[in-house]
Amino acid sequence: MISDKVKEILNEQINKEFYSSYLYLAMSAHLYHMGLYGIAKWFEIQAGEEIEHGMQLFDYVIKRKAKINLKQVETPIFEFSSLRDLFEQSYEHERKITNAFNEIANLTENECDRATRKFIDEYLEEQIEEENIFHMIIKKIKIFGESEASLYLLDKELGKRKSTQYRK
Predict the structure, then answer these.
(1) pLDDT in tens, 113-135
(2) Number of Cβ atoms within 10 Å of the Cβ of 93
(3) Closest CA to 123 of 89, 87, 139, 99
(4) pLDDT confidence band for 156 (50 / 70 / 90)
(5) What are the φ and ψ backbone dihedral angles of 160, each rounded to 5 degrees?
(6) Within a 10 A sphere around the Cβ of 68, how many other Cβ atoms?
(7) Which domains does the chain have, with CATH numbers?
(8) CA dist list (Å): 38 to 6, 64, 92, 111, 138
């Protein structure tokens, strides 16, 4: 069994993962509407990964004999002035998620919960990868700009992303 503090912070993280999924799915819908189908697909796959993370956390809490406390997922609100701005907002969101996982890691150390700490370490490693991917896309947009040709090539490139599980 896990402590009440660990149970609460894991429940909060489950909600954050589902919110992340909603956020990326909303971005995907907007990009589909704009006609950037490859980038829209990329964000749709990203949304699916966030659902997977939420469900992995859900399963972990259940396995640890703790109670799940799902909360209402807020409607994502985002406004962006350019595609670069959209990716920068996404990057900042991922950094917040990394900080949330760091808070969980710190709490599990304070609670001497080595099993949960080991479980969370995988997410911390993945967050480094996630932040790096968003950062690299932003760098490409900074270098090549948002001309029609640049957007076409970025849309084509990101559209090649393959899902690992969600909606293959």
Answers:
(1) 999 999 999 999 999 999 999 99
(2) 20
(3) 99
(4) very high
(5) -80, -5
(6) 13
(7) 4-158 (1.20.1260.10)
(8) 39, 39, 22, 44, 16
* Whether this model's pTM surpasses 0.85: yes
Residue for token digits 């907007």? 30
Phi-psi region of 167 (alpha: psi -120 to 50; beta: other; left: phi over 0): left
C-alpha distances (whole Å) from 61 to each of 23, 32, 52, 57, 168 are: 24, 35, 14, 6, 27
Q: How many Å separate Cα 110 from the centre of its chain?
A: 26
Angle at 127 between CA 124 and CA 130, to 5 degrees: 160
